[in-house]
Amino acid sequence: MTIPEMLGQSGILTVLGMCVVFSFLIILICFMKIVAFLVKAFGWDKEEAEDTPAAAPAAGTAQDTAVVAAIAAAVKDKT
C-alpha cells in the first residue's frame, strides 16, 4: 500500500468519524427537544407549593447574617 493510498483511506476514515459524531449530536439535540416539550406539556417544570416549606428561607437568612458578621469581624481584626 502506497502513501497516497493510506492518506486517502485516513481521509475517508476521518470524514466517516466526523459524520458519526455529528449525527449523534443531532440525535441528542432532537431527543432533548422532545424531552423539553414533554416536560412542558405535562407540567413537570412547575414547583408545587406544598413541597417547599415557608420556614426555609428564614433559616438561610439567619445563617447568611452570621457568616457576614464573622467575615466583617475577621476583616476588622486584620486592619
Task: Compose a concise summary of this entry.
It is built from two helices and no strands. The chain is mostly helical.
Would you mind describing this structure in some detail?
- Helix content is 80%, strand content 0%.
- It is mainly alpha-helical.
- The protein is elongated, with a radius of gyration of 29 Å.
- The longest helix has 40 residues, at 3-42.
- The chain contains 2 helices and no strands.
- It starts with a helix and ends with a helix.
Helix/strand-derived class?
Answer: mainly alpha
Rg calc: 29 Å
State the distance separating the first and last CA atoms.
Answer: 76 Å
Question: What best-fitting shape do the alpha-carbon axes yield?
Answer: elongated
Main β sheet profile: none
Poorly predicted runs of 5 or more residues:
none
Mean of pLDDT: 85
Helix content: over 70%
Contiguous helical run count = 2
The SSE order reads HH
